[in-house]
Amino acid sequence: MARSGYFHGDLRRALLDAGLDAARAGGPEAVSLRELARTVGVAPSAVYRHFASHEQLIGAIARRSLAMVADAMEDELARVPAGDATAWADGAIAAVGLGYVRFAWREPGLFRLAFRAHGDLEAAHDEAARGASGRTPYEQLERAFDALEAVGELPREQRPGAEALAWSAVHGFATLTVEGPLRSLDERTREALSWRIVEMVRLGLSATAPEPGAA
Amino acid sequence: MARSGYFHGDLRRALLDAGLDAARAGGPEAVSLRELARTVGVAPSAVYRHFASHEQLIGAIARRSLAMVADAMEDELARVPAGDATAWADGAIAAVGLGYVRFAWREPGLFRLAFRAHGDLEAAHDEAARGASGRTPYEQLERAFDALEAVGELPREQRPGAEALAWSAVHGFATLTVEGPLRSLDERTREALSWRIVEMVRLGLSATAPEPGAA
DNA sequence: GGCCTAATGTGAACGCCGTTCACACGATGG
DNA sequence: CCATCGTGTGAACGGCGTTCACATTAGGCC
């Protein structure tokens, strides 16, 4: 384990750290296996002792990024005033949404990488995607909706799928502003729109919806 | 111009067609410049007579895909019953949203490629992104909101940014179900959720929202 | 303490990729 | 008929992910 010059010590961890740095700076496309090996000072083939493929390397970095998303949501949740349960539930759903999009803006490279893991399914629900709070981003969302339902602000028939709807709105906004056609928005309007997004979600989910009409 | 065996005839068009096929089958990562040249029966370097780089090739294919998105939205709009203006406006906003997500499900490869064009900015607003109706996807959305506003169902102060919010919700849902953590949803729940998405957008935008509270 | 084994890192090679450049071809217009 | 210019060729470059035989070392076992 002592630095012998031949063995690295903790190559796996070092590769992930280097990968996070690279993705932070240049997004997913900047994370090349050979480049990471170079940064860490090791032959490219050595990487395969710890990851089966480039795709799995990316997947592992994606999980770490997701954990950071969960932490960002947790931080935002932590500053919701505790007092009233109803007020807290309202604040919580705003907090998780804002934490999500703000992470995307603060770390666009990591955010883009986090949702680029096609190979190993469901990285978002993986153990390694848990942050310091022990929760995945999705579970943070669930927590906020649990509170909302407990307080009677979320109709029972809206609950299944409610997370999916909220996640869609927030994720779409984050995506379009980070790497999509809305990426040229200035920070003020972005911030204002993100508030309206969570408001839209809350309003849209607090009522009973009719059945589909035609087609 | 006659097929001489040396000159191709319309290489640019042929490359785009081949690119659409490749993306349809394997998504953005399946569209390699060399592979396309091979399919068309031409040397890789010949591609550079028509596109400055691989990225611009992808960009051109992305624009064609966006045009197809606009067409899908147009098709869905066309089957909204015309009668009442209010009913039409309601139907229109549902139609554009559903057209969008249904295109994503029908052509996941093209959809994924369409929103991967980082290089040349604003492909979504480009001329080449117009479909048979002469409109971009974004303009289709605008059209539906114009109708909604004309009928008095969209408060004036909600209008600026309304397209961004609606687009976010719909795009996020499409993304998460096509290449994200929600991609394992079965078709029935997907379809049901997409209805609820547009309902959420309509409800969420039909009311006046309060100012942001704290932080 | 000295060996065996399993884990870990090396180096060279393979085929793919995007890109460049000097060159070949052929349609077109003076 | 010839010069020109747009279009396609072929070979080469460096970078990529991946593989495989081989080198090196840590740690357990006698």
TrEMBL record, chains A, B:
Transmembrane segments: none annotated. Pfam families: TetR_C_33, TetR_N. Residues 32-51 bind DNA. Residues 9-69 form the HTH tetR-type domain. Keywords: DNA-binding, Transcription, Transcription regulation. It comes from the Bacteria. GO terms for molecular function: DNA-binding transcription factor activity; transcription cis-regulatory region binding. InterPro entries: Homeodomain-like_sf (IPR009057), HTH-type_TetR-like_transc_reg (IPR050109), HTH_TetR (IPR001647), MT1864/Rv1816-like_C (IPR025996), Tet_transcr_reg_TetR-rel_C_sf (IPR036271). The keyword Transcription applies. PANTHER family: HTH-TYPE TRANSCRIPTIONAL REGULATOR RUTR, MYCOFACTOCIN BIOSYNTHESIS TRANSCRIPTIONAL REGULATOR MFTR-RELATED. This is TetR/AcrR family transcriptional regulator. It comes from Agrococcus sediminis. The lineage of its organism: Bacteria, Bacillati, Actinomycetota, Actinomycetes, Micrococcales.
